[in-house]
Write a structure and sequence with these properties.
Length: 379
Amino acid sequence: MTDLPAHASPKLEPQAAPSDRPEDQSDNVSSTSGTATGGQTPALPESLLSPAFTPPATPGGTLNLDTNPTKRLHQTQAASLRHLEDPPKKAPKLLPELPHVECIVRARIPTTTGAEMFLHLYHNDLDNKEHLAIVFGNTIRSRSLDRARPGETEMDRMIRGAYVGKLHPGRVSSRFDDEKPSPSETQKKVEPPLVRIHSECYTGETAWSARCDCGEQLDEAARLMSFPVEDLSADAPLEAQSLKSDSAGGVIVYLRQEGRGIGLGEKLKAYNLQDLGSDTVEANLLLRHPADARSYGLATAILVDLGCGADMNPDGIRLLTNNPDKVRAIEGPNREVMVKERVPMIPLAWRTHGERGIKSSEIEGYLQTKISKMGHMIQ
Ligand SMILES: Nc1nc2c(ncn2[C@@H]2O[C@H](COP(=O)(O)OP(=O)(O)OP(=O)(O)O)[C@@H](O)[C@H]2O)c(=O)[nH]1
C-alpha cells in the first residue's frame, strides 16, 4: 500500500452499516454475508480495503490502466476478490432469542389494483425504524395489537386499528361489527399463508430503477396474495394457482434494511462501482461492507406476532423467495416459524420471454451475480 498514487486518500477504518441496529452485529444474518464475510463485517484482506471510497479502478473495469500508477492497486484488489467467485457456504448466524416487537397501529388500505390490505406498523427493541407488515385477508391478526391496553376506550382501540370486521361511521365497539360478522369467525380450515420478507429498496420501488427487480417482486407478491380466486385464469402462474379459496391470505413483512442493509447512500456508491465494472458483491466489499448485511430476526418476530409462527400455525408458511439463506434465517433460532414450502419468484421478463418485466443490461448482471455468487435459485 506504500506505492499508492498521490491522490489516494488515507486508509479509513472499516465503516459500519448506517444503522442503529445492534442486530447488524449479532442477529441472524443471511449466510451470504457469512459466506463472503464470516457473518459480520469482515476482516477483509488489507489489499481489499479500498484506500478511498471510490477506488481509482475496480476489477473488471474498462479503464485504461497501463499508464496509470493505480494498476498495481487494481491488480491486488482483483486478486483478493477472486476467491469470492466461489465463496464457501455457511449457515446463517442466529440470535439466541427473537427481538420484542409490538404492532402500534393498523389501518385498512384499499389499493390501486382493487385489492385491499391492512398495513401494520411495528416498533421493536432493536432499532427505532418503522418496520411494516402488509397483511392480505381477514384471518391474520396481530396479537400485540389486539391486546388490551390499560385505560383505553373502545374509540382508542378503533383508532389504533384493534377492531374486528370493518370500520364504518357510527360504529361504537371494536369487538363487534354489527354490520357483518368477521370472516375469521366463520373461517374453516385454511391453507398455510403465503409470506414474503421484503427488504426496502427506494430505487427499485419508488424511483423506477431497472438495476434490480425489487419493485417487480413487491408488486408480484401483493398480486399473488390479493388474487381473488374466482378471477384466476387458466394461464395464471403456478404460484397463483396454489392460492386456494381457503387460503389464509398472505403477509409481506417490509423490513427497512435498504441496500441489503448498507443504506441508500452506500448503495448508490455501490452503483457507481458497478458502473466502473464491479458486480454487486464486489462493490459492497470494496466499500468495506459485507456482501449482504441484512438480518431477519425482526421478520421472524413479526410473523410470530401475526400468528404465523409454529405455536399458532403448525402447518407452516409458504415463503416467496429465491434466496435459500432467507428460508433458514426466517425460521428463527428455535424454529419459531416453520417454512413448509419455498415458492420461487421468477423474473417477469424470464417468464414472458422478454414481453413484460424489466429490461436492462444492469438487471441481467444483477440476476447473474445473485445466482453465481449468492446462491439464489432462479430457474
Ligand atoms: N448493496 C446493494 N443492495 C442492492 C443492490 N441491488 C438491490 N439491492 C438491495 O437488495 C435488497 C433486495 O434483496 P435481493 O438480494 O434483491 O433479494 P433477496 O431479498 O435476497 O431475495 P429474494 O427473496 O429472492 O428477493 C433491497 O434492499 C435492495 O435495496 C445492489 O446492487 N447493491
